[in-house]
Amino acid sequence: MARLIVAGPRAVTRLASAANDRTATPLARLAALRALEASGSPLALDAALRALDDPGFGVAEAAIGVMRQFVDGERGVSVVDRLASAAIDRGRPDSVRVAAFKALGDLQPATLDPLVGALTNDPSPAIRALVAPRQEPARPTGPLAILQRAVAGAPPHDPAILRVALGRMAGRLSLPDLAALIDVVRTRERTSSPALQPAWMAVRASAHAALARRGSRLALYDLRETLEAASGPLPVEFIATLVAVGDATCLEAIAPAYARVTTAEGEGSWWRRHLADAFRVIVARERITRRHAAIRKIEKRWTASLQDLWPAKKGQ
Fold first, then answer.
1. Per-residue confidence (pLDDT) for residue 32, from 0 to 100
2. Which CATH architecture does the domain made up of 2-135 adopt?
3. Distance between CA atoms of 28 and 19, rounded to whole angstroms?
4. CA-CA distances (angstroms) from residue 180 to 148, 151, 183, 228?
5. What is the structure's pLDDT at 212?
6. Is 214 exposed, middle or buried (0-12, 13-18, 19+ CB in 10 A)?
7. Residue 296: its pLDDT value, please?
8. Please, what is the angle between helix 94-103 and helix 59-67, to 10°?
9. What pLDDT does residue 173 have?
10. What is the pTM of this model?
11. What is the 3-state secondary structure (H, E, C) of the chain?
């Protein structure tokens, strides 16, 4: 997924095909949709519209994550119609209906009010609770305003709101503002309850990916510190950032992170593979040799890890 996110448009066609392949596992279809979410491609939207009715666990919710990026686009009318239909469909799981409704959360009240009215007396307690606060006349806050307030040090209480705003409007922020946002989110992450810390870390990872897509290394210091402190797998966007813009200083953070994860750990095995891939991509891109100071330091402290991480010679 990390490499697919970085590959962007080059991978969209195959990802769209995988997302709608009912012979693949639901997890594979879900992963394809997650990788499509940041592409902005019409093919991604087409795949998501088809996947909205997929019964696989989590697939419809992942499709909605793609669709919400297109609510304000050229095909916004049809996207809003499909999301609204999913929200009021009592035959769907509550998780899908809730996700569909939240995807419409930035619409004007006049547009959203009929849907709220239709859901007010819904038999599902989860749906009724979802729309109850909306009975008060309040204008939704736009995603760009949410990001600007977060950069100024006042992020929303719900990390999911900030992550959605990033997905939609990260391109409107300057590179220094994105780097400042990472600092703000890191502070909120450290002071939040343990239950919310992974969600805030996911927001920070998304901000890193937004910087990486624009070729910026402004926040590599935070990525290195995060790797050095990691006791297990991190969100995939951190790997995508390493692959896109990681430099020699990142290698010294990758090696100990790799060493801390044993191959016996099921979740850790994919983390080790992606760390190794990122290490080798950086070595090749930066043309780093075994004589480089960073590599000599790694060799002294993490000799066994370096043997695994160093790119194999052609033919081996």
1. 86
2. Alpha Horseshoe (1.25)
3. 7
4. 11, 6, 5, 21
5. 93
6. middle
7. 95
8. 10
9. 92
10. 0.57
11. CHHHHHHCHHHHHHHHHHHCCCCCCHHHHHHHHHHHCCCCCHHHHHHHHHHCCCCCCCHHHHHHHHHHHHCCCCCHHHHHHHHHHHHHCCCCCHHHHHHHHHHCCCCCHHHHHHHHHHHCCCCCHHHHHHHHHHHCCCCCCCHHHHHHHHHCCCCCCCHHHHHHHHHHHHHHCCHHHHHHHHHHHHHHHHHCCCCCHHHHHHHHHHHHHHHHHCCCCCCHHHHHHHHHHCCCCCCHHHHHHHHHHCCHHHHHHHHHHHHHCCCCCHHHHHHHHHHHHHHHHHHHHHCCCCCCHHHHHHHHHCHHHHHHHCCCCCCC
**Residue 3 structure tokens:** 């490499």
Kindly report, residue by residue over 199-250, the tens digit of the pLDDT.
Answer: 999 999 999 999 999 999 999 999 999 998 888 889 999 999 999 999 999 9
**Residue 241, C-beta contacts closer than 8 angstroms, at least 6 positions apart:** 205, 208, 209, 211, 212, 223
Q: In the chain, which residues have pLDDT < 70?
A: 1-9, 133-141, 262-268, 313-316
